[in-house]
Structures are given as structure tokens and as C-alpha cells.
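ok new one. same drill as before - C-alpha cells go in, u give me an amino acid for every spot. 70 of them this time. try not to just spam alanines like last time pls lmao
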């Protein structure tokens, strides 16, 4: 499997495919970092683990942090 970075959205429920859009950044090619542009204000960043075809392992296999962009 691999990780996904979810910006300002909740962890994806187990058994559900992680969307491919501007809020769900896929790290399926072994990436270890990225740059995310955030508008000023409060945001959440969730790291979500999913299988090789992007099916989420659920909130138990995720971690969320809260950040404030200025």
C-alpha cells in the first residue's frame, strides 16, 4: 500500500477508495515529501494509509494534525 495526504477533509472510511482530487494527494510512487499551498487560517492535514489500489484502511490507519497558515 501507500500513503495519501488529505487536506481539510476527514479520513476515508475503511473499504472506500481514496479520491484523486486537490484535497487527496496520492504518494503511490514512493514520494516522501511534497509542498502544499494553504490559504491563511486553520487547516487539517491527515495522512491516510491505503492498499495498492487506493482502498482506505480507515481512520485507524490515519493520523491528523492541525496547522495554522499565515
Amino acid at each position: 500500500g501507500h500513503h495519501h495526504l488529505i487536506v481539510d477533509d476527514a479520513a476515508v472510511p475503511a473499504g472506500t477508495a481514496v479520491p484523486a482530487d486537490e484535497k487527496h494527494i496520492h504518494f503511490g510512487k514512493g514520494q516522501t515529501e511534497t509542498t502544499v499551498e494553504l490559504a491563511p487560517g486553520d487547516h487539517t492535514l491527515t495522512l491516510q494509509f491505503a492498499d495498492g489500489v487506493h482502498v482506505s484502511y480507515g481512520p485507524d490507519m490515519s493520523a491528523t494534525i492541525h496547522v495554522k497558515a499565515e
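The chain has no helices and four strands. and btw Strands lie at 2-7, 24-26, 41-50, 62-69.
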